[in-house]
Amino acid sequence: MATKLNELLGEELVRHNESDDESSRISTSQLNGKTLVLYFSAHWCQPCRHFTPKLAKAFKEVNDDIKNKLDIVFVSCDENQEDFNEYFKEMPWKALSFSDRDHSKKLGEKFNVNGIPCLVVVSPSLEIITSDGVDEIYGAPKEALRKWSQGKRLFWTREPRNDEYVWEYTNCTECFMKPLVGLRHGCTNKECQIDLCETCLSKNKHEHPLVEYLIPDRQYSLEKLLLSIPYLLDPKTEEKIETKTMLKNDIKSVGFYFSAHWCPPCRRFTPELVEIYKRAQTNSHPFHIIFISCDEDQESFNSYRSEMPWPAAPMNSGAVPAEYFQFSGIPSLIVVSSNGTILSRRGHEDVARFGVQALQTWSRGEKLARPSPDEYEWRHVICDGCQMSPLIGQRYSCPICGNYDLCSACEKKGHEHLLVLQLQPDDHDEE
């Protein structure tokens, strides 16, 4: 870490709302004794353009006492002076001159900036307070600035006790514990975006019902899995169906179908699933599916669910099952038996491969036969030799090259490093 501020930022900075010329420069020494917030951002970056107004609003609204202790410096990742000038007009703080590319590059390397927007907060003695500044601003903008001005970060955490689960990317919206440790409760309405630790749950009075999130690596009964879904919607009407109907008549399993109207692969798969589903209903144990929408608007949700002969969870009520199943993409059909055993995490591929036989097998509460190693399909994996996509059969990976995979045929051609055979995952694993 640099021992002096001018070593970190150079001798001069550009004042806010000024063009980048000699008349707008100020001495870097004016920031001595302040908490420093380095804002790595660019005009061309959409997430940055979305974040900057939020940061600017919070900075303008905090009191002078905070501004006397803290300042923000824009470190541009733009590609030309014109974009820098246009973007800097939106910022009520200071900037590293666009022409000082040497310091910009060194700052990015020093603070391991791998993506933007990025906020790195350092103390007056130039010790890092937090590199998680963007998330802290999204968590509580003015409170984050106040904490930083005191030399503290907004987020905090504690060591897990016993078998407590650690929610790596989640913070409590009340006390700002991140990662959130232990029991996690949230609103069934995704628009609320509220997450509470066990301590804050007892103090909070929220307008909607709060539910306990399920720990992803633990097994729960189907009854427990369905508790977060308040009711189901008839596929053709707005009629509400009690969720517990999914537990009647000795139902052996339920498929949770995560899909969206905007997703082309989903739109291709849904008609296939509908046709196979209708054929499977003639079985003595018909198969049951719940549609959980990943759409963004009610119109798309209603239009899409009308194409399906099975019930749907209400719009924005799928946060708990989505977090529990930890699926990597849509369409995703995850099949669970009545006692909570995962019968398949690859329902999409299983239906494509086995057709109605897949649904008939699941309806009996049974798993499909595992594909042989030569038949296994590695979702989202491409052979770097022959470009087979997805890679089917034995998969060999190079631990040195990183993200380098070969099929069995290409492995036989040789590679400069020792390759490792990847074992076929079970129903609890993802590739």
TrEMBL record:
Sequence intervals crossing the membrane: none
Enzyme Commission number(s) from the entry: 1.8.1.8
Domain ZZ-type: 378-431
High-level lineage: Eukaryota, Metazoa, Spiralia, Gnathifera, Rotifera
Main enzyme class: oxidoreductase
Pfam entry (one): ZZ
GO molecular function: protein-disulfide reductase [NAD(P)H] activity; zinc ion binding
Keywords carried by this UniProt record: Metal-binding, NAD, Oxidoreductase, Repeat, Zinc, Zinc-finger
Highest taxon listed in the record's lineage: Eukaryota
Residue ranges of domain Thioredoxin in the record: 1-146, 202-364
Keyword Metal-binding: yes
UniProt-recorded name of the protein: protein-disulfide reductase
Coiled-coil intervals, chain numbering: none
Family statement: Belongs to the nucleoredoxin family.
Catalysed reactions, semicolon-separated: [protein]-dithiol + NAD(+) = [protein]-disulfide + NADH + H(+); [protein]-dithiol + NADP(+) = [protein]-disulfide + NADPH + H(+)
